[in-house]
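Feature request, filed as a ticket because there's no other form

It would be nice if the structure record came with a short human-readable summary line next to the tokens. Right now we just get the raw output. Example of a typical job, pasted below so the devs can see what we mean:
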Amino acid sequence: MLLSKIKNLYFIIMFLPIIAGCSFSPMYGVNSNSQLIMSEIYINDATDRNHQIIRNEILKYMGQNAERGKSELEMDFKISIEKNPLLIDSSGEAKRMQLEVEVEYKIFRITEFREMVFSNTARVYNTFTLSSSEYNNAQAEISTYNLIAKEVASVINKQISLNHPKLMN
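Raw output as currently delivered:
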């Protein structure tokens, strides 16, 4: 009798994860419903080089850009970049530079009208060391901006994934 109860308990423990896993649906990621929504968002064309870098990073998360005119959803975004000197020494020279990028984005449903369905902001900071060479400083700024663009795209992807039911109506 005890052996029978142990067998039953064993089978319950073995099949419980299978039954529980049947209804599991991740909120975001490759296997979620949000990924389907994100692949349907058309991201408007770039206005400048900084805009293009961030747009390209967002497209990496969302897949191929949906076609303008065929997609019901469209994303616009505006970029603000601010540079702040850090670690100023006694001569007044900065040793590091902080780069702050803020991306305000909006998603619109395109029907007869252009209705805003979602809006949010992604803000990312990063720093780089300054040197006496202007060329090195320019390269460091470009590299830092590229890192920030990847992080901004990741933040936007997560924000849209977590709020994708608002886009499904």
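Something like this underneath would help us a lot:
The first strand starts at residue 41 and ends at 43.
The mean pLDDT is 81.
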